[in-house]
Write a structure and sequence with these properties.
Blueprint lengths: L1 E5 L8 H8 L3 E3 L11 H11 L4 E5 L1 H13 L3 E4 L6 H4 L13 E6 L7 H10 L7 E6 L8 H18 L1
Parallel strand pairs: 1-2, 1-3, 3-4, 4-5, 5-6
Helix pairs in contact: 1-6
Length: 166
């Protein structure tokens, strides 16, 4: 399975994240400068298409991009603490998006100071015109960063569902 992994705003793919992902397939982890000008969305879309990614996984702002990319590419998606409610205010995503019909798993840390879990839940409920299948995992004691065991657990849950549906 080919995986596109998008890191958070001021981060980079960590070694433990890459190792955990490698257990599930071939991983592409671009180093993204989100603050640069240019069409980051289109660059990532082209990269994902060229590499024929089967799933897209993202953290934080990488989760924002993963949400929209996976929808327009019609692939399953796992996102951690994406700030979906403010996405159109901060990043110019395509106005028209394809109908989502692939699985979406959203992981939210209740202690995250930047991403309000309740606002994200409302966004998903209010933007589910397609009635797509998704799962929400709330982690009460987690903030923006998950432990290695939490990260692996979410990956395993996601890939068990995605592989089952194939």
């Amino acid at each position: 399975m080919k995986i596109l992994f998008l890191h958070g705003l001021e981060g980079a793919p960590s070694n433990y994240q890459q190792m955990a992902l490698l257990a599930h397939g071939e991983v592409t982890c671009p180093l993204i400068q989100y603050s640069t000008t240019g069409d980051i969305y289109q660059d990532l879309f082209t990269m994902a298409q060229d590499r024929k990614c089967d799933v897209i996984i993202g953290l934080g702002v990488g989760g924002l991009f993963a949400f929209y990319l996976s929808c327009n590419m019609n692939v399953p998606c796992l996102i951690f603490n994406p700030n979906l409610p403010t996405s159109n205010d901060t990043i110019p995503f395509p106005e028209k998006r394809s109908k989502r019909n692939q699985y979406l798993q959203v992981v939210l840390g209740k202690e995250d100071l930047l991403v309000n879990a309740n606002d994200t839940l409302l966004f998903l409920e209010n933007n589910n015109q397609d009635q797509f299948s998704y799962s929400i995992h709330l982690i009460n004691q987690a903030a923006s960063k998950l432990t290695l065991s939490e990260f692996r657990l979410e990956l395993n849950t996601f890939f068990n569902i995605v592989n089952f549906k194939r």
